Amino acid sequence: MNRFDRTRRLILQAAGAQALLGVSGLSSPAFARDGALRPAHGQTVMPIKAGWTFRKVGDAAWMPATVPGTVHTDLLAAGVIEDPFFRTNERNQQWIDKVDWEYRTTFHVDVGLAAKDRIELAFAGIDTYADVYLNEAHILSADNMFRTWDVDIKHHVRVGENVLRVLFRSPIREGQRLLAAKGYNPPSPNDQSEVGGLGEARVGLFTRKAGYHYGWDWGPRFVTSGLWRRVELRAWDMVRIRDVQILQSAVWQDRAQLDVIVSLDSEDARTVELTIASPTDATLTARRAVKLHPGGNRLEARLTIDKPRLWWSNGLGEAHLYTIRTTILSEGVETASHEVRIGLRSLRVVRKPDAQGAGFHIELNGVPVFMKGANYIPNDSFLPRVTPDAYAAVVRSAADSHMNMLRVWGGGVYEDDHFYDLCDENGILVWQDFMFACAMYPGDAGFLESVRQEAVDNVRRLRNHACIAVWCGNNEIDSAWQNDVPTGGWGWKQRYNDAQKAELWRAYEAIFHEILPAVIAEQDKGRFYWPSSPQADWKVHADVTRPAQAGDIHYWDVWWGQKPFSEYRANIGRFMSEYGFQSFPAFETVATYTIKEDRDIFSEVMQAHQRSSIGNATIKTYMERDYTVPADFKSFLYVGQVLQAEGIKIAMEAHRIRMPFCMGSLFWQINDCWPVASWSSIDYYGRWKAQQYFARKAFAPVLVSPQIVDGVLNVHAVNDRLSAQHLSLDLRVATFEGDVLWKHAAPVTLAANSSQILFSRSIDALAAGVDTRRALLLARLSDGAKAISENLLYFHPVKELHLPSGAPLVSTRKTDDGIRLRLHADRLIKNLYLQAEGVPGAFSDNFFDLLPGETVQVDFRGHGITEAAFAAAFAMSSLGKLQ
Ligand code: BMA
Q: Which residue's CA is the nearest one to ligand 1's atom 10?
């Protein structure tokens, strides 16, 4: 449909548009990440970015500081500490979080600015225990990293120089004080207190601060302090729009009904003109006069859009966004405005009881959509240095790999606005955890109120984003404690006496069953809230012994339980929100944190960049099962990546072919916060591991997946598209030299949005007389000459195969953005690994099997690459070469 041949109307209905009185205490508008001003919208906005200095409390000398920033990165820039990520530097930087720090700057206020009706200082994020002084008057005490703080400074600010000083108290000392007051330590196993020199005192849970700062099983311990998001002065006269909430009350194919709620502050009683329009759609426009009262005002308006362009998740259509601009005109002059982007869509989480238990699926615009994606953690231990490009690289990698969901996991942070903007634009739905993970939290009145405020701030900040699909209370606390099953859980509750147990569970209920759902109901009515991930959904499906039948699942018997990858096929729930397997990053990344003598997986440095208790040995154990373990370090890293990718491929495909029983597959984890061996599919520097390339194939909209179960070959096909696909299926058994031993071809129809078996045959019938150590099965779905999905199946573990050892023929030519390679092989090249160390860029495909007789084209893309530099760095490995 052409966007211009549809009429859209916007109606401001008189009944819904009257001004309501007396609503106050509204929170701040959304923040942009980069310090760049959002259009001032009638306000004067002055970033307080320049001139910052810092010192350890008690020191004489001030050093230059960066805001937004952290103490650690400022110390690094000042040359006081070395790169925290290099070798084991982390260990000797643990003193930083145990002392107090002071930050200071000055800013100039002119007469005009000082005369404004209202002046406020807005802190988008303070990490964490801080007292703020303006011209030596105390203006704020902060104690929650996740909150935003707006401080009225009208009566503190003066014409000329103003001094802003922030005193940060050590989060560790504060935590120790709170722990002592509590008298016992609640469970919090991921807090790496030993690294911090605190023994078993796990203090992180007492502070509303990112859990991973205290260390995690993929992350170092850097308990930061600092002004981690921007600080700005805002001043205005008369009227200021605080917030505009757009409720999508009903979205149909032919019509969308929006309720717009404008929260604004007015200095006096006046009549103004409210207009709502869309710069992206000239037909949307409405205006009317409204009467304002002094203080907080709430205006409501109903809009109707005919024939809306809907927002679709990646793969199903355009992620169309409308910009909605709200303005206030006073005596014909624009005095305040606000802009927000929305995507029109209906979204429900459907949990319908069925014969097996109860389903759990996302329904988008009336369509059940299988969620393909990953868990997402913070991109750096030091958040302020994450660039917009780094955010874009992760979200685009997800979109390019056919993902449609990321789970913002609860041990990190409520992410930057820019992240959610990118998700909106790329059709990536977000499963948004609140920031609680793997711990039992305090339940005193002060803590609970802080949690409530934090939830209000972040729900308000994020609620207009099209991408937000699920609000989730926490990560894994329900399953770790399992209050309903006396012997259940991870052994947490068994360590406490009855009074402690009751206290800890009461706090859990207060946060996750009372406060958070109440905030959602009040601030984001209608959006789905799920108390914990995973949760067995016993309310819908009462069989506690069979959690796989309802709710979501974190499946960790592969890796933590050392079970074989094939177990992924047998352990499938209704929504797989976590599963994963580790690998090392590429050698180039390892080289950034090691010196030559460290390059052994059991060296002190390699173990320090591995935080899972069973880490590197587990990678080796699994490798021994299926692969010939290479003796040299570099090859070990490469085979480890293949191991991870092949293992997770089993899970991704197994989950998809079980649709509609299973309707989600989010692996753990897409990114890293430092260079480390972890479950990530993309490393800290943005390098795709083998797994990310494999995910792109396993999550493709149309998938062919051959599986052998109990001696029977089943060829499955999954079609995520909303229309039937008429394709040809081509199956063949061929030797590694390309001789075809068996084949089958047939036209097939894949029903829309479904999984089906296309072909079944006993393996004996196919492989009779075949030397299965020298042969493979190829399954291909094509549309005419174009391959839509292709998959290979081997009959034995790799170490038992007789792989050819040759290398492909390679020709290259320069393209506009890099180098184009053509690769050809006469015999199978298994998991061909293309490398160009030191040349900035990335291969469009990698770690794939090059089939005999096949020629494939791969692009190496990057800026300013010369053919000579590429040729000098280019190298290839394959599993055949290593055997
Ligand atoms: C899950 C996650 C994380 C953890 C990961 C790997 O428990 O929620 O807490 O890092 O598994 O162990």
A: 217
Least confident of 244-258, 276-290, 518-532, 649-663: 276-290
Alpha carbon separation from 607 to 113, 217, 257, 593 (Å, rounded): 55, 12, 56, 12
User: Residue with the nearest Cα to atom 6 of ligand 1?
Assistant: 217
Domain contains 248? no
Mean pLDDT of 634-660: 98
Q: Which residue's CA is the nearest one to ligand 1's atom 7?
A: 476
Residue pair 203/176 in contact by the 8 Å Cβ criterion: yes
The strand pairing partners of 362, in sequence order, are 349, 369
pLDDT for 603 beyond 80: yes
166 and 49 in one domain? yes
Residue 530 resides in a domain? no
The answer to whether position 52 is within a domain reads yes
Q: Are residues 544 and 559 in the same domain?
A: yes
Question: What residue ranges line ligand 1, CB within 6 angstroms?
Answer: 216-218, 411, 437-438, 475-476, 554, 578, 668
Nearest to 524 by CA among 469, 474, 451, 447: 469
Q: What is the mean pLDDT of the chain?
A: 93
pLDDT of residue 488: 84
- 125: buried, middle or exposed (CB in 10 Å: 19+, 13-18, 0-12)? buried
CA of 191 to the centre of ligand 1 (A): 12
- Rounded to whole angstroms, how far apart are CA atoms 701 and 94? 47
Ligand 1 centre distance from Cα of residue 435 (Å): 14
Whether residues 757 and 873 fall in one domain: no
